[in-house]
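Usage

Read records sequentially. Each one opens with the input sequence:
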Amino acid sequence: MPDQSVNDVTDLLRAWKAGDEQASDAVATLVYDELHRQAALSLRSEGDGHTLQTTGLVHEAWLRLDTQRDVQWENRVQFFAVAARMMRRILVDHARQRHTVKRGSAPVQVTLGVAEQGASGRSALDPVDLLALDDALARLTALDARKARLVELRYFAGLTMPEAAEALDISLATAGREWTVARTWLRRELES
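and closes with the structure output:
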């Protein structure tokens, strides 16, 4: 996104927070493609048989974002970080609902390696249960909230390492170290 658009999004987010309905529409126009990319990335990791569509995930996330009256929008990176959290909640809620409806069915499988996929689009990690991932992230949050947030930003938002570091207000080197530790911890938790 060009610098002017980044500044536009930041200014519009602040106007939206102040109650400007036109700003809400303008933000939607400027961020829709990026939200759609995030949703597609999140859903691509879901595996076959997922009933939630990319556009549906974007719209549900937008509805939840629109009700966030407590958030002090600072910039577009923070906005997309909050959007990632919303998408995570929607996917987990959807997985729980599907699991409840289909008792005894296999858990919803996702891959942890989406943020590290190469041009091939193939993941470096085996599929994991989305509900198990959510539970593991909750445990990681209790141990180290910043590492859990980093995983959320990288995995659910698809942010690059520099974007995630900016969102967390940490150096790129620190983000890299924490990403390595968090991935290792999650793999161990999910394999046990």
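Summary fields computed downstream for this record:
- Residues 25 and 161 are 29 Å apart (CA to CA).
- Confidence is low (pLDDT under 50) at residues 114-126.
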